[in-house]
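re: that chain from earlier
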Amino acid sequence: MADASTPLMRQYHAIKQQVPDALLFFRLGDFYELFYEDAVTAARELEITLTSRNKERGEPIPMCGVPYHAAESYLARLIQKGYRVAICDQVEEARFAKKLVRRELTRIVTPGTATEANLLRPHENHYLAAVLRKAGSAGLAWVDLSTGEFRATEGEAAEAQALLETLNAREILLPAGAPPLEGFRTELEEWVFAADHAESLLKAHFSLFSLEGCGLAGKPLAVGAA
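^ sequence. v structure.
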């Protein structure tokens, strides 16, 4: 890949491989830079200048950037447009770096997991939903991380679909390979939705001995989605 031979771009590519489906904000001094298709997308959506690096080698790499001190406003605009954004920060001071400043992913923000006030639309719910379907039935769970509201249910697939549409979820979690749904979707490995695994997590999180009291006993699809 173009410019992959430089230490900086090798570092960039290694980090980008961790978040291939996110726009990567890569910290360079006082700016967060985006490269390649991320840059093309961000420049279009944020209405900022698209430029390039590596022109002198005849292999220009699209790039754009936003000031570090104003990054949250740009991040909010991308999240509200339905994009997943990963933040890569410098985790050591340049004066202490032996060669290349160490950088790491410090934050991944999606439309359904944003909780900061500046990333949310006021007076609206920001649901993160999960759907688990089997034959003609479906489990549906949804949470608003900004308020703590959490619910789960199970029923006919058509009923679950109708309820999902009323939620206007910002993000929908689905098992990998599941039939697609409209909206911003994130696929997770199938084992994440296994009822036994999900039940253990629910009991631990809510300090429960069983799921009888919350109405989820005997509802494996709802439990798996939750």
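Residues 131 and 140 are 5 Å apart (CA to CA).
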